[in-house]
């Protein structure tokens, strides 16, 4: 066993104390020479005394903060074990009308980042498939949603929360509902008109009678504010409230089902609860507790409309007539999610932690870390990247605070209940074939991807091609951006490198100045489009002022939503220098818009990016990848600015080399338009292979996960254990 104590969030105070103690020790030899001089001696004593007091004070403060919040984990080595994926006998069969409830903080218009995009795309793919699934979503009732949808009142329910005197109080809340309608076309290349479909969205509203939970989700003006909270309402209470309320809603839906959207099937309760992310992990525990209370302890209280008052002593009878929902938990991120935690005093407001010996193992210091709980107790746990789910198990992938979740993951992996499912790409969000703006400017991509005749392309003059060409669409997009004065005349012939995303260290922003150097050298254009984050915008403007002709920064959101799609269509190369990436949706989108990718190829990116691994390779690649060079081999900490800086510094030469190669390739392709057309078409084909509903693709994999989760033996076992 290779053990060393690793303290995360290494405390700056601690560092200060360490340094001071070291300094003092160094001074000891000088003491003797000072003894003669009494005044100096007194002064020194006084100084030492003061220093001593300061040290004591700092020490106390450090200990206090340690006890409070710092997470100290003993570093562990986990021997690799084989990753099994699904047990071989699992199929994608689920009964017709199977009901799924996604529990998430982000969905549809209320999406801020990757989580919302993924959950929305998954729910859409499930709703549009012929897969017989009845798809629903449970999210908070963010106030701005009322402006966008006609929300009807669905139920009034209550949960118990402790008040300031520690007494349980009934906290009443209403649940609203609307149907999220969307039209799209699962096959973007087909000319068939898109169909309208709908997903039921249930909204957990603020409390009606309990302060400060009555403030939850109010005054949320847009999707960027969904995680903000009024000062009077602690974030953790809001999260815990949502977990308990969502569990109550699910329990209610399960005991008094509505008639199904599917005409010929009987009403069903809740078959599958699909929890997304660690903030919703506790929903699982609340559901199981409510189920036990209602069925075994006879506490059914008949709240809400039509709730039956089930009291029974015969466990078997209940299990056969009213099974608890099967729970699937999806971990969306391995850099942050395991850190998600709640203070024990906050947890205790919602759940009696003192009576729950089974939960003690999730407590570290004064905090409760729910992610492992959901991995342990869900019927199936999944991760959003197949390659990384495998790496975590087989190659002991290094990431921070892995000790919090890896033991649970390994445990589930041995039985085939830890599954990596790589996301698909929702081509309808940014659809180069049928986007209204692209259509308006004659820049929509032709649909003739599968039925294009390469030989005919070479047989004809390119200007007179009888087949519609992607390069023409791309060049029209560029012309229009020049007309709008977003690009200048010279840009028409420049190679365009596009970055789309947040301005975040994590995304590799520290590479930008070095990329800019090469861009300027080849007189190409670097378009940096995205939203402010932790990387200061002023640094980007400094780079721009150095190379004003070759860099364009678009941080304005309105400009982006208006012209973003044309920039995507016009680009030659997409820049994705991320330091970590679970999937790398922007890279897949880049391919779809016919751009090859300059990237680190980390994480999920490695599943679909194929490196141009030698200068002489002429086809079969879709990207130019450079290695993140790290002396410590994978074991670096991107939250530590020093380590991250080192990592970037050591990787710059690699970036410059591949960027140079890419620019030279594209400059050459300017005079080989046939070759360029074929090359771009291959990029698009690579992207289309990533659809949600492809054969054995993510949609199919999630259905398998549901099928596995619904196999009853497993579930009953879980209830028995808790009972
Ligand atoms: C699949 O195999 C496992 C044992 O390997 C068994 O317990 C389970 O019942 C089987 N499931 C189905 C659906 O046949
Ligand atoms: C293209 O988009 C329009 C409007 O968004 C839609 O009505 C039409 O059905 C779409 N066509 C296809 C083939 O998806
Ligand atoms: C990709 O290929 C280039 C050579 O073209 C090489 O320098 C680079 O290291 C490769 N990248 C990765 C991630 O292997």
TrEMBL record:
<protein>
    <submittedName>
        <fullName>Uncharacterized protein</fullName>
    </submittedName>
</protein>
<dbReference type="InterPro" id="IPR013534">
    <property type="entry name" value="Starch_synth_cat_dom"/>
</dbReference>
<dbReference type="GO" id="GO:0016757">
    <property type="term" value="F:glycosyltransferase activity"/>
</dbReference>
<keyword id="KW-0035">Amyloplast</keyword>
<keyword id="KW-0328">Glycosyltransferase</keyword>
<keyword id="KW-0812">Transmembrane</keyword>
<keyword id="KW-0472">Membrane</keyword>
<feature type="domain" description="Glycosyl transferase family 1">
    <location>
        <begin position="493"/>
        <end position="622"/>
    </location>
</feature>
<keyword id="KW-1133">Transmembrane helix</keyword>
<feature type="domain" description="Starch synthase catalytic">
    <location>
        <begin position="100"/>
        <end position="292"/>
    </location>
</feature>
<keyword id="KW-0808">Transferase</keyword>
<dbReference type="InterPro" id="IPR001296">
    <property type="entry name" value="Glyco_trans_1"/>
</dbReference>
<dbReference type="Pfam" id="PF08323">
    <property type="entry name" value="Glyco_transf_5"/>
</dbReference>
<feature type="transmembrane region" description="Helical">
    <location>
        <begin position="43"/>
        <end position="67"/>
    </location>
</feature>
<keyword id="KW-0934">Plastid</keyword>
<dbReference type="Pfam" id="PF00534">
    <property type="entry name" value="Glycos_transf_1"/>
</dbReference>
